């Protein structure tokens, strides 16, 4: 029995308007099912109103739909009462919120923040800025050329001085599923606050936040079949309560006088202004869709597609994979001997095959690999064996063209 509906592409209108499209850039963003588009349409058509304000019917309906998604997200990650969910624009905004607000609570001069060389820029740059502001040191867990964390010196990397640890769960370059608990357990035992960038793991596997031993977990809606412009920050309420607000303005206040203001309760203290209402509501439908298929099924299906892709691509002359992590999701970074990644991506694009060429917002990894760019094929639930065959054919044709 197939784990995934056979006609799944039919659920995604983009594949009807672009019947030849082979979309293999899912680590960047994912396609949107009709049911999510319908939900957005329904909001704008039937109850477009601001949330938490109007006591009229459509305002109450909008608030109800918006807040129901919060409950859905909390359940999706199996959060208990010690956590709440804050809606942001995406992983990037979630991390910026944390890197601005959390240091005011936990950092003092001379402390340290730990991240890894495998991070996406959105989990590097905000901490570099925080380190400058607070005069603290940024340390990195090194990576190997296999695309794994080198944890051999972990005891020196995490000490009592380490106050924030912010780590990628699943690599957007290698697909590595990192042994996150090995680090979070030590970090927590030494009193650090732990953040997990789950942008690439939440869409592809079942995540139970309680097993991860973290204080915060962040992800983006558009990488899990949801709309762009919506993300989530799950966080421990005892920390969020004490943290100062990030953005300020309407909705995040309790009282405002000419002299000073007081803050709304959680989670709204961190949701200033009119939020991305339609996008949040759309995210709820993408979660419904993923749950209907089943996160374990999604993981298993992607693994089968990935294994097939590796089997077929490995036979292509000149094909080289970057990294060989032991546990990984369905992302392949590669190069073709003698062909620049951008040239190959362009040739594939002429055959309607969308792969990514570039540094994947992870320049420290490129530095480690001593390349300026790689090609990346990343899969999701709608990719099929036929897609892989087209990719293989495209690469073989390109090789013939370039070696002619
Ligand atoms: N973290 C990881 C691991 C990612 O792969 C990405 C996007 O590719 C991000 C963070 C940033 O996500 P967004 O651009 O949705 O904020």
Structural description of this entry:
The protein has helices at residues 14-17, 34-46, 57-76, 91-106, 125-134, 154-157, 180-189, 209-212, 237-242, 277-293, 295-313, 341-350, 363-369, 385-403, and strands at 22-23, 83-88, 112-116, 137-141, 162-168, 193-197, 216-220, 231-236, 253-256, 261-263, 319-321, 331-336, 353-354, 356-358, 374-378. With 404 residues, it is of the alpha/beta class. The protein folds into two domains: 5-29 and 295-402, Alpha-Beta Complex (Aspartate Aminotransferase, domain 1); 37-291, Type I PLP-dependent aspartate aminotransferase-like (Major domain) (Aspartate Aminotransferase, domain 2, 3-Layer(aba) Sandwich). The strands form four sheets. It has a seven-stranded mixed sheet, sandwiched between helices. A four-stranded antiparallel sheet has the order 11-12-15-14, with helices on one face. It is globular and about 75 Å long. The structure holds pyridoxal-5'-phosphate (PLP). The site of pyridoxal-5'-phosphate has 14 residues, from α4.
């Amino acid at each position: 029995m197939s784990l995934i509906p056979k006609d799944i592409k039919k659920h995604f209108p983009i594949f009807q308007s672009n019947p030849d499209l082979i979309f293999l850039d899912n680590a960047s963003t994912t396609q949107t099912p009709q049911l999510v588009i319908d939900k957005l349409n329904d909001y704008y058509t039937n109850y477009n109103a601001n949330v938490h304000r109007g006591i009229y019917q459509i305002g109450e309906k909008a608030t109800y739909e918006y807040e129901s998604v919060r409950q859905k997200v909390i359940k999706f990650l199996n959060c208990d009462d010690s956590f709440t969910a804050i809606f942001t624009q995406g992983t990037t905004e979630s991390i910026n919120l944390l890197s601005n607000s959390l240091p005011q609570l936990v950092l003092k001069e001379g402390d340290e923040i730990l991240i890894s060389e495998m991070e996406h820029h959105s989990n590097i740059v905000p901490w570099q800025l925080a380190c400058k502001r607070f005069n603290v040191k940024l340390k990195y867990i090194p990576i190997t050329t296999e695309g794994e964390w080198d944890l051999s010196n972990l005891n020196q990397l995490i000490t009592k001085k380490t106050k924030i640890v912010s780590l990628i769960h699943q690599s957007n370059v290698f697909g590595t599923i990192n042994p996150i608990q090995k680090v979070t357990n030590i970090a927590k035992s030494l009193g650090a606050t732990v953040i997990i960038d789950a942008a690439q793991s939440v869409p592809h596997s079942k995540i139970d936040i309680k097993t991860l031993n973290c204080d915060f977990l962040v992800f983006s809606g558009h990488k899990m079949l949801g709309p762009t412009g919506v993300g989530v920050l799950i966080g421990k309420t005892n920390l969020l309560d004490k943290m100062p607000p990030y953005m300020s303005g309407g909705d995040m206040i309790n009282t405002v006088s000419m002299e000073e203001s007081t803050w709304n309760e959680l989670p709204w203290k961190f949701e200033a202004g009119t939020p991305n209402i339609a996008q949040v509501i759309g995210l709820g439908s993408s979660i419904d869709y993923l749950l209907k298929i089943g996160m374990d099924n999604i993981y298993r299906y992607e693994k089968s597609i990935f294994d097939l892709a590796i089997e077929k691509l490995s036979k292509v002359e000149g094909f080289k994979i970057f990294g060989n992590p032991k546990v990984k999701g369905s992302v392949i970074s590669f190069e073709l001997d003698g062909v620049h990644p951008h040239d190959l991506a362009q040739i594939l694009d002429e055959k309607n095959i969308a792969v990514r060429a570039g540094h994947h917002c992870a320049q420290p990894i490129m530095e480690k690999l001593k390349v300026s760019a790689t090609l990346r094929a990343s899969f999701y639930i709608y990719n099929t064996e036929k897609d892989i065959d087209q990719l293989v054919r495209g690469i073989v044709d390109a090789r013939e063209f370039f070696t002619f």
